[in-house]
Amino acid sequence: MSSVNIIELAKYLNISKSTVSRALKDSYEISEETKARVRAAAKELNYQPNPYASSLRKHSSKTIAVVVPEVLNNFFSTAISGIEDVALEKGYHVLIYLTHDNAESEVAIFNLLKSGRVDGIIMAVTSNPDQTNHIKELHDRGIPIVFFDRICDNFDTVKLVTNDLESACKATEHLIEKGCKRIAFLSVLKTFSVGNNRLEGYKQALTKHNIPIDESLIVRGSQDYDNNYQLIKQLLRSSNPPDGAFAPVEKMATTFYYACNELKLKIPNDIRIISFCNLETADLLQPPLSTVKQPAFEMGKTAATLLMNSFEKKKYKLTNEIIVLPSQIIERESSR
Amino acid sequence: MSSVNIIELAKYLNISKSTVSRALKDSYEISEETKARVRAAAKELNYQPNPYASSLRKHSSKTIAVVVPEVLNNFFSTAISGIEDVALEKGYHVLIYLTHDNAESEVAIFNLLKSGRVDGIIMAVTSNPDQTNHIKELHDRGIPIVFFDRICDNFDTVKLVTNDLESACKATEHLIEKGCKRIAFLSVLKTFSVGNNRLEGYKQALTKHNIPIDESLIVRGSQDYDNNYQLIKQLLRSSNPPDGAFAPVEKMATTFYYACNELKLKIPNDIRIISFCNLETADLLQPPLSTVKQPAFEMGKTAATLLMNSFEKKKYKLTNEIIVLPSQIIERESSR
Asked: Do A36 and A101 share a domain, yes or no?
């Protein structure tokens, strides 16, 4: 059931907002008759009181929420650093909420955010959002939202992404240029824009180089990394194993390293690999890992700057646009 | 200047809390005389109104705050996962606040927390807290606080630590047993319990094995890692360089790896290293890094469990105790 705010309630009753407010607070200044009318309408229209509404309208909570899947992932923890960088400078506090890539958690977090604690939201949505009503409800109430990395197309606001498709295509082509003919795709993300774009980039590169797409080379992993480890080992031990691997997710690359270690496969001699990865230690791995490095810090910084501009400048409005910050391919030993 | 809450104010005036409350709200039910008396006392005693006080007393915000230096550190991001694990199960929300190891930021965060948004706090304090009044103020108001890792001794509550001194001693002894005679200590933390305990453990191990403590082997780094990198290189290039290194901080170990790479020093042949470290990729580094692995996940889980027990069970109270969760020494190639 949808709810109304105090402005809508006042409009419906054709009385002033302050009269509604005082009636709901059982003020002695308001007649019992009016109080009864207001209470009945509030019930009928499902009015949801918001104790922090006035603070919110003035943007005075000086707090923004960052909703991300996890902080054990270097992309997100680095993006948060970028957000914090701007927030500290502008005197804003950052509250971090983790969804664990779980749609139900995301809904629960938005229920919490409904209480009006924040001036705005920066978020990377979960991989499988069944619906986005919870986001819509807050957005409709005027809470500005900026999406990054894992974006939601159906909102009129700024979305920050990297050039996933193009980078994935380039990374795959890089392996092809090194002589790889059977390139595995080690995915985790499911029915999701980021994952889909990277898969599409991988497929485009193969097609461009006349390499047939072999579905058996596409590992479709989950959040269960023990299982992902088994899936990768299974592929590496198959009768027709890959000679290269492209990981669209950092943790799949390290899982791949462990699998190769166990199977005594040498990277890059037996198999090459390149991965989307923001690990600070990519350079120190045995062998150093070739990476597609996302502009995580810049993305966080840009998201926070745009969101805060929308608070501060009356004229600045978050418009419906996609801003692309390019990723950088860094070739290291693992794909030589 | 210290402040009083409404209960203390009522006690001082010898009138009921609800009378004070209504007087402060300028209620028509209260005489002008009483209102004037209440206002004067409120000013005199520095009464701080707390709009969410009633919600807080009922522990109804169902939200806890986690205050940590950073999330780009695997120890803290893993501890947060442990906290979230318990919070999700118990239906609590977790708000994460980052201090960037800056005492001023910590004070600002506590000013925000004073508005009464959370039922309790789990925190690792900054390295250089000049004072702890901001923490005391909230603690005195009845907000339960559990400290972990970087604890604050002067509060009557549970503090979770690992056996820093003992683990540091064992790690140093491990290097001595491998034949190291000149062991560097690569510190970052400053005048701080965790850092001091680890330094003390290092010194105890040397003393036990009749190795003189050489201050020139103690690198005193800062948050400026470019500078730390220079300090380490300087030490490695000195006329009497170390043959082993103990890093009480993960990032000093990776900085050390980079320095060795640049100077073409081979680990462990030219120099051995062991580090406090929760990097998931410790095993995949070139060479695999020997680590003192802190029980980060368990620490987060225990902190959250104890804090939430203190909400739910009227009989459970956070008492003044230090709980030690042991770290684990994992020997790998870097110290062989």
From this structure: no
Task: Please give the tally of structural domains in chain A.
Answer: 3
| Partners of residue A326 on adjacent β-strands | none
- Per 3-state DSSP, chain B is made up of helix, strand and coil in percentages (nearest 5) of 45, 15, 40
Same domain, A170 and A263: yes
> Is residue A333 in some structural domain?
no
- Closest residue of chain B to A260, computed from CA coordinates: B284
- Name residue, tokens 């909230």: B138
pTM of the predicted model, to two decimals? 0.77
* Residue B90 to residue B62: CA distance in whole angstroms: 9
Q: Cα distance from A326 to chain B (closest Cα, Å)? A: 22
B73 min Cα distance to partner chain A (Å):
9
Query: How far off is chain A from B75, nearest CA to CA, in Å?
Result: 10
CB pair distance less than 8 Å for B100 and A84: yes
* Tens of pLDDT, residues B230-270: 999 999 999 999 999 999 999 999 999 999 999 999 999 99
CA distance B187 to chain A (A): 19
Co-location of B180 and B263 in the same domain: yes
Residue A336 lies in a domain: no
Task: Report chain B's mean pLDDT, rounded to a whole number.
Answer: 88
Per-residue confidence (pLDDT) for residue B102, from 0 to 100: 83
Q: Are the C-beta atoms of A46 and A4 separated by less than 8 Å?
A: yes
pLDDT of residue B47: 79
Contacts of A98 in chain B (CB under 8 A): 80, 84, 94, 96
Q: By a Cβ cutoff of 8 Å, what residues of chain A touch chain B?
A: 28, 51, 63, 70-72, 74, 77-78, 80-81, 84, 88, 93-98, 100, 105, 108-109, 112, 117, 254, 257-258, 261, 279-281, 283-288
**Is residue B334 in a domain?**
no
SS3 A296: helix
Residue A22 CB neighbours (<10 A): 17
Give the CA distances from residue A275 to residues A67, A196, A262, in Å, rounded to whole numbers and listed in that order. Answer: 24, 15, 20
Taking 90 as the threshold, does the pLDDT of residue A207 lie above it? Answer: yes
Residues A252 and A172 placed together within one structural domain of the fold: yes
Which residue among B84, B258, B261 places its CB closest to the CB of A98?
B84
Q: Over 60: is that where the pLDDT of A53 sits?
A: no
Residues A136 and A216 placed together within one structural domain of the fold: no
- Round to whole Å and give the CA distance between B324 and B294: 11
Flag whether B227 is in a domain.
yes
Query: Is it the case that residue A162 has pLDDT exceeding 80?
Result: yes
What pLDDT digit, counting tens, does each position of A216-244 carry? 999 999 878 899 999 999 999 999 999 99
- Whether residues B77 and A72 touch (CB distance < 8 A) is answered with yes
Q: Is B55's pLDDT higher than 60?
A: no
B73 lies in the same domain as B125:
yes
Compute how many other C-beta atoms are within 10 angstroms of the C-beta atom of residue A329.
16
Q: What is the pLDDT of residues A69-91, one digit of tens each?
A: 888 788 999 999 999 889 888 88
Q: Which of A71, A112, A288 sits opposite B77 (nearest CB)?
A: A71
> Domain check: are B140 and B195 in the same one?
no
Query: Rounded distance, CA A290 to CA A180, Å?
Result: 15
> Which position has the higher pLDDT, B46 or A319?
A319
Q: For residue A14, what are the domain limits?
A: 6-49
Query: How high is the ipTM of this complex?
Result: 0.74
Same domain, A115 and A128: yes
pLDDT at A263: 98
